[in-house]
Structure formats: structure tokens, C-alpha cells
Write a structure and sequence with these properties.
Blueprint (H helix, E strand, L loop, with lengths): L10 E2 L10 E2 L8 E6 L19 H15 L4 E7 L20 E4 L2 E4 L25 E5 L26 H7 L4 E7 L1 H14 L3 E10 L6 H10 L3 E3 L1 H10 L4
Parallel strand pairs: 3-4, 3-8, 4-7, 8-9, 9-10
Antiparallel strand pairs: 1-2, 5-6
């Protein structure tokens, strides 16, 4: 599912036969771009309480391609996010008597999907997957630790009791490292990858989503997710296009 690349400038265009194509794009400088590996945790994989769809085999469909990208050092600066909820988190359906997973309610005046208990601090399902090359990660950002606020994005919590979305500090860390662009992959495409990529764009980073290295909770959401993230300035590409874009810069 490679996306077409042009070697001059950036020009919005579709790629025939690929509904997830975003555009031709300029070179990606690996020295100033961070790979963000989003929530690659067993609880979001088949067998966990909140699995993504369409990936029955942990290794072949989920972990192996992300591990391959990390080990390629195509983007040497690599960070990960990790959902890390306390017991009784506000996003858990079990915290709301009479409610079931996937019910929608309001929390602090904003829509909230209720989830099965997942990624509880210290539980095996909350750990980053052990078959990833974790030693390559420059930083691991734990999110969702505030019992009263969900945190889909690696850059900001969801709205808290005061109505604000508290920053996580990831933007400051990346800027201190000289990063101007981020490439997001992982779980799940329709929630934490989406929100992380959108918040990166809002923070002033050039933001990309590796469509073929992220997977959704709800596959029927793909068209909506694609449209919404593009409308917020996020670019879609796949692993092959990423490699081409890095090569255009003279990197890897």
C-alpha cells in the first residue's frame, strides 16, 4: 500500500487504488523527527480486555512490524507512550454503577466512552510488549495516571475536572531534543494514535501517521478517522513511503 512520493515540494493528491493515501510529501529528516510508538501493550491486543480488531496474531500482525521499524533505526529517536491507569479510573465502566463497556457518558462536561478495566498500573497487560526492542526507547511517557481524567493523547490528558487538558510534557521534551516532526504508529488508530497525532500537529510539529502500522478498535471508523486527522493537518503515509521520504533527505 505504498503512497506516491514526488521529489519537489508538497502537493495534495490522492493515490489511485489507495483510499488511505494522503499526499505526496517532502523529505523527512531523521535527525529532527521522532518515532512515537503509541500504547503497544498486551491489554490492547487479542486476548486483552480491549483488543484492536483484525490482528489475531500478536507477533505477525502487531508486534513484528513495529519491532522491525524500531530495529531499522530509520528514525533513531524513538519514544513510547504507555497507558497506566490507577484502579477505579474514571474511564472504566466498572467505576460507574449500571454502566457497561462502550457506553457513552459525560465526564467533566465532555463525552467519554467507558472502557473495560485495562492497563491497570503494575498489571502484566499494562507493560509495554516484551517483544519490542524497549532498550531503543529514549523515553517512555506514562499517561492516564490521573484517576479523574482519561488520556488518549501522548501530549495532553483529556479534559479534567477544571475543564482543561493538562499537558504531559512530551512536547517540551521533543523540542529540547530538536524535533520538528513526529511519526506515530501503534494502538489504537481511532483513539490514542489519532489524538496523539492531532495534538502533535496542534503543537506545531509536522505530524504523520503510519497507517499500515496502526490498528483500530472499531474498523468501521477508518474513513472518519482518516478525514478527521487530515482535516487537522496530519499526514498519512505507510512504511514504504516513510523509507522513501527519509532517503530523500539523505538519511538512512
Amino acid at each position: 500500500m505504498a503512497l506516491g512520493l514526488q521529489r519537489i515540494g508538497y502537493q495534495r493528491q490522492s493515490t489511485p487504488g489507495n483510499p488511505n493515501a494522503d499526499a505526496a510529501m517532502s523529505a523527512i529528516d531523521p535527525a529532527r523527527t521522532a518515532l512515537i510508538v503509541v500504547d503497544m501493550q498486551p491489554d490492547f491486543m487479542p486476548g486483552g480486555p480491549l483488543p484492536v480488531a483484525g490482528a489475531e496474531d500478536h507477533g505477525e500482525r502487531l508486534v513484528a512490524p513495529v519491532r522491525g521499524l524500531m530495529e531499522s533505526d530509520l528514525l533513531p529517536l524513538q519514544v513510547a507512550t504507555q497507558d497506566w491507569h490507577p484502579p477505579g479510573h474514571v474511564s472504566f465502566a466498572s467505576s460507574h454503577p449500571g454502566r457497561a463497556p462502550f457506553d457513552g457518558i459525560e465526564v467533566h462536561g465532555y463525552p467519554q466512552t467507558l472502557w473495560p478495566d485495562h492497563c491497570v498500573q503494575g498489571s502484566p497487560g499494562a507493560e509495554l510488549h516484551p517483544r519490542l526492542p524497549l532498550a531503543r526507547l529514549a523515553a517512555i511517557l506514562r499517561k492516564g495516571m490521573d484517576a479523574q481524567a482519561d488520556s488518549y493523547s501522548g501530549f495532553h490528558n483529556n479534559h479534567g475536572p477544571n475543564g482543561a487538558r493538562a499537558p504531559t510534557g512530551l512536547a517540551g521534551y521533543l523540542r529540547e531534543r530538536g524535533v520538528v516532526a513526529v511519526v506515530c504508529c501503534g494502538l489504537a488508530r481511532d483513539f490514542c494514535v489519532k489524538w496523539t497525532a492531532e495534538d502533535a500537529a496542534a503543537a506545531g510539529f509536522t505530524s504523520y501517521v503510519l497507517w499500515d502500522l496502526c490498528w483500530p478498535v472499531h474498523p468501521h471508523s477508518d474513513a472518519r478517522v482518516r478525514d478527521e486527522i487530515q482535516a487537522r493537518g496530519v499526514h498519512l503515509l505507510d512504511r514504504a513511503a516513510l523509507a522513501d521520504a527519509v532517503a530523500m533527505s539523505g538519511g538512512a
